[in-house]
Write a structure and sequence with these properties.
binds zinc ion, 23% strand, six-stranded mixed beta sheet, 13 strands, seven-stranded mixed beta sheet
């Protein structure tokens, strides 16, 4: 069975590995106008990765998702404290206290490294994640960020099979920065995320697709609709 990467709209993504490990990233489900599913539809979850505490990433469903599934949440310590105040047990937070940028943890055979992101946050800073599935397939979720030179290092350290990159501008990379970041990250494939959710964001992927074809023609752009999945 291949791995599945499903875009749930905005920054929310659901990865189901070939061996059945389910990873949710930034699960803003309830009140996400782009999300085609409800929290009750999610079912099994093993790992929840949270990039930062803005409402359009943290949402309000994490206590429900964790308590219903016994998933492990991976986030920075400051954010882990906030989650505990909202009803998430320390037993459902990695090491009971969270982790930080540069570190790698392994949960259910999946290796997760927290990476930097250039953005803001109230509790802790904003981050991204490198996700190495059981067979070595490597996925990068950038979180919310502008382009940064360290993306070149990430591209050198990790052979990225798939990058999940924000392209919506205003709060994150615009299509030009996102397209240029492909020359640094060197992924095989990219799924554009964090666009068209709000009227002020970029409304479609066409400019990104055109710029990516110009700057990094070797990268395959997979512009999904919310609810669609890419098999890896
Ligand atoms: Zn944000």
């Amino acid at each position: 069975m291949p791995h599945s990467v499903k875009w749930l709209g905005h920054s929310a993504c659901q990865i189901t590995s070939a061996s059945g490990c389910v990873i949710l990233i930034d699960p803003w489900i309830t009140d996400n106008p782009s999300c085609p599913v409800s929290k009750e539809d999610i079912g099994k979850v093993d790992i929840i990765l949270l990039t930062h505490d803005h409402f359009d990433h943290m949402g309000t469903d994490i206590p429900y998702l964790v308590n219903g599934t016994n998933a492990v949440v991976i986030a920075q310590p400051e954010l882990a404290d906030v989650l505990q105040e909202s009803g998430v047990s320390a037993e459902n937070i990695i090491f009971g206290m969270g982790m930080n940028i540069g570190g790698q943890v392994e949960v259910a055979g999946v290796k997760i490294t927290m990476t930097q992101a250039f953005h803001s946050g109230t509790a802790g800073s904003a981050v991204g994640f490198i996700i190495i599935l059981e067979d070595g397939k490597t996925i990068y979720h950038a979180g919310d960020t502008g382009i940064f030179a360290g993306m070149e290092l990430l591209g050198k350290i990790y052979p990225i099979d798939l990058a999940l990159l924000p392209i919506g501008s205003v709060f994150v990379m615009d299509p030009l920065q996102a397209a240029y970041s492909l020359t640094l990250l060197k992924p095989d494939k990219v799924i554009p995320i964090h666009y068209k959710t709000f009227p002020i964001l970029v409304q479609d992927a066409s400019e990104f697709i055109e710029l990516a074809g110009d700057k990094a023609p070797e990268v395959q752009v997979e512009a999904l609709e919310p609810g669609q999945e890419l098999l890896l």
